[in-house]
UniProtKB/TrEMBL annotation:
It comes from Mucor velutinosus. Residues 53-64 have a biased composition (Polar residues). The active site is at H153 (proton acceptor). This is Endonuclease. Residues 35-64 are annotated as: Disordered. Signal peptide: none annotated. GO terms for cellular component: mitochondrial inner membrane; nucleus. The lineage of its organism: Eukaryota, Fungi, Fungi incertae sedis, Mucoromycota, Mucoromycotina. Its EC number is 3.1.30.-. Gene3D superfamilies: Extracellular Endonuclease, subunit A (3.40.570.10). GO terms for molecular function: metal ion binding; nucleic acid binding; RNA endonuclease activity; single-stranded DNA endodeoxyribonuclease activity. InterPro entries: DNA/RNA_endonuclease_AS (IPR018524), DNA/RNA_non-sp_Endonuclease_sf (IPR044929), Endo_G_ENPP1-like_dom (IPR001604), ENPP1-3/EXOG-like_nuc-like (IPR020821), His-Me_finger_sf (IPR044925), Non-specific_endonuclease (IPR040255). Mg(2+) binds at N185. The keyword tRNA processing does not apply.
Length: 329
């Protein structure tokens, strides 16, 4: 069954986000005759070297390389865009300065990494701004205050229980994006995070990439628009329309992959996880990213054919939910 059909059957008219993503997949589907190619990783060029104090008669001449020409065009610096890469004990994040959200956050889960360390307690952790980011591009705590959205972890604190320092690092705002609370961050999304942890019982290595998406939605005039809310005063942080998780598992030399896109809205617990499974390249096109470019991705088995992709619904107690809540509007 097609993704759009699954989404419609599962969530009905309330699942505008899922349906719009399915429509986006169809709208941007690559022609069948186009051969599969490796998509290069887009990396911004390094800032040019300071201009030489010596003048040259050959400046702009035919013998200069493009890089040398670039130094004459950009003598005072490269404007960007820049994706700040921040390395933590348990994860790596790529931060988007415009949206004030991560592009992606990567983690590596194993049975050993999930063991709880002595005296590690989430109650000791607090949300904090990330000084690795220039001040004018930082997400701020005040941006979330009374916004109506949760500060949603991309790498959840529950994945990092082996040390208090590592758990504390998951509370940097470079690992956070605005998420709907009830029905999503505190419920269905939390069940998906638990699913990822449970995979370590069957696989020796579980690699997880998580991040936001800003996907087009078809409106009454039949046209597609990308619209999303901004929070903060002044408006500073983008509210994603969707979130993705890309999961790569490994055991005894065999790999499998699963990609999931969920709308940033309440999702009924009974909704099958497979309703949100999409091809890996759909996430890549929607996010502008390339995953696993050192592997033959076309040969990777479907994770949900290797195991049953089914969520275990865990009703988190009210105290745990209150930890994730923000002040009411």
């Amino acid at each position: 069954m097609a993704t759009a059909e699954k989404a419609t059957l599962v969530l009905g008219g309330a699942a505008l986000g899922v349906v719009s993503f399915a429509a986006y997949q169809k709208f941007t589907q690559k022609p069948a005759v186009r051969p599969a190619v490796n998509v290069p990783v887009n990396r911004p060029p390094p800032p040019p070297s300071p201009p030489s104090t010596q003048t040259s008669a050959s400046v702009g001449g035919p013998n200069l390389s493009n890089m040398e020409k670039a130094r004459t065009i950009l003598p005072f610096g490269f404007p960007g865009p820049v994706s700040d890469i921040v390395y933590r004990n348990a994860y790596v994040t790529s931060y988007n300065r415009r949206d004030r959200n991560p592009n992606w956050v990567a983690e590596h889960l194993t049975a050993a990494s999930l063991k709880r360390g002595d005296d590690v307690d989430r109650q000791k952790s607090t949300f904090k701004e990330d000084d690795h980011i220039p001040p004018q591009f930082q997400a701020k705590l005040n941006d979330y205050f009374r916004s109506g959205f949760d500060r949603g972890h991309m790498v959840p604190a529950a994945d990092v229980k082996n040390s208090q320092v590592s758990m504390n690092e998951t509370f940097y705002l470079t690992n956070i994006a605005p998420q709907v609370g009830e029905g999503f961050n505190r419920d269905y999304w939390a069940h998906l995070e638990h699913f990822c942890r449970q995979l370590t019982a069957k696989f020796s290595d579980v690699y997880v990439f998580t991040g936001p998406l800003y996907l087009p939605h078809q409106e009454a005039d039949g046209k597609f628009y990308v619209k999303y809310q901004m929070i903060g005063n002044p408006p500073n942080v983008a509210v994603p329309t969707h979130f993705y998780k890309v999961i790569l598992t490994h055991h005894q030399g065999k790999y499998s992959v699963g990609a999931f896109v969920l709308p940033n809205q309440p999702i009924p617990d009974q909704t099958p996880l497979t309703a949100f499974q999409v091809p890996l390249d759909a996430v890549e096109r929607g996010a502008g990213l390339t995953f696993f470019d050192r592997m033959d991705k076309n040969a990777l088995p479907n994770l949900c054919r290797e195991i049953e992709c089914k969520l275990v619904i865990r009703k988190f107690d009210n105290a745990q939910k209150n930890v994730q809540k923000l002040p009411a509007k």
